[in-house]
Amino acid sequence: MAEVTAEARIEAPAEKVWATLTDFSLYGEWSTTHTGFPKGAPTSLEKGGTFEENMKLMGFPAEVTWTVEELETGSTLAIRGKGPMGVNVGTRYSLVPDGAATTVRIDGEFTGAAVSLMAGKLKDSATAALNESLRKLNALAV
Question: What is the reported pLDDT for 121?
Fold first, then answer.
């Protein structure tokens, strides 16, 4: 298993950050691992809903089928996905209002046999991607 976390303070209210985070037409502008939605971007989010995403991490392309596991509008989005080679991925976005700003935390988890072979490099690459994604999300949300 490889676990990664990134956190940033975004100088925008939680409602605006949430709107940007869940506007899938903007997803490619801030998510550095995102390369496309093969069946179209999700039009709405609901617990149990699914969508497919094409991603690239460590230079490897992957198609992940995501399921929304937890959804608290304005504060939490947790998704779990199945990728190639038996890799399972979990991502949790948490927003905490902080005055006129918002603290955004992204927790990621990778499991599966293939992960154990490259856990260290995967952690480094995924952490860098999350931090860059938060930087780009900040630029879009403010």
Answer: 83
φ, ψ of residue 43 in degrees (nearest 5): -95, -20
Number of structural domains the chain divides into: 1
pTM for the model stands at 0.91
Under-70 pLDDT residues of the chain = 117
> What's the pLDDT tens digit per position in 127-139?
999 999 999 999 9
CATH value at residue 84: 3.30.530.20
> Containing domain of residue 100, as a range?
2-141
DSSP letter for each residue of the chain:
-EEEEEEEEESS-HHHHHHHHT-TTSHHHH-TTEEE-TT---S---TT-EEEEEEEETTEEEEEEEEEEEEETTTEEEEEEE-GGG-EEEEEEEEEEETTEEEEEEEEEEESHHHHHSHHHHHHHHHHHHHHHHHHHHHHH-
